[in-house]
Amino acid sequence: MNQAKEISARLHALASADTAANLQRFFKTGPGQYGAGDVFLGIKVPPLRALAKQHRDADLATIKTLLASRYHEQRMLALLLLMQFYQAADDAGRQAAYELYLGNTVHINNWDLVDVSAPRIVGRHLENKPRKILRQLARSDSLWERRIAIIATAWFIRLDDFYDTLQIAEMLLDDQHDLMHKAVGWMLREVGKRNQKVEEEFLQQHYQRLPRTTLRYAIERFAPPLRERYLKRTFPTA
User: Fold this and answer.
1) Which domains can be identified in the chain, with CATH numbers?
2) How does DSSP classify residue 121?
3) Which end of the chain is more exposed for a tag (fewer CB within 10 A), N or C?
4) Do 170 and 139 contact (CB within 8 A), yes or no?
5) Least confident of 28-32, 151-155, 158-162
6) Which pLDDT tens digit goes with each residue over 177-224?
């Protein structure tokens, strides 16, 4: 049995039909919903993380095979393995892992898959590199590639580097999808945790255009009177 089949067999042994049914509902897999067609085995994240730790030696070929699975948890496991691979790799290995990730975004197709992996693979890889790819992803027709673009910047925010977050947030102001409204608002809130002045400068420029969900997420940690002014959009115009 090759490694991908071995890991897959161990994964399937953890499956739960009841948990799968709950996850199918939670991740909106019905017709017309954002996760339409996604299939769950019924495994929560802690057992997936434990299984990933037991297979730290998984190579990129194994990871790529697992990432192409129809099962959501198998794709999540593949991303956990890829993150481990990236952490331990040399420069050439990290480049190969990054390229595998961007070459397989069609399989990184739900918000949890994006959120766990984009900062630690895409963001981390681009820390000291040109970041043009993030603008390309932000213009994508794919909801998940657009989400990768903004969520990847969480890595930079931790380094007090806000430029890309704010620029991409501005690019996504008119995005129509609620999951993007939440993602942009979340990243703006993370900027504010590090530097509220920087976040407010962005909000003062754009709050009239921000979708209400984005604004709510962005100002969640503000003092109640200030939060209320933003929600009522009662700041004087210049």
Assistant:
1) 1-125 (1.25.10.90), 129-238 (1.25.10.90)
2) I
3) C
4) no
5) 28-32
6) 999 999 999 999 999 999 999 999 999 999 889 999 999 999 999 999
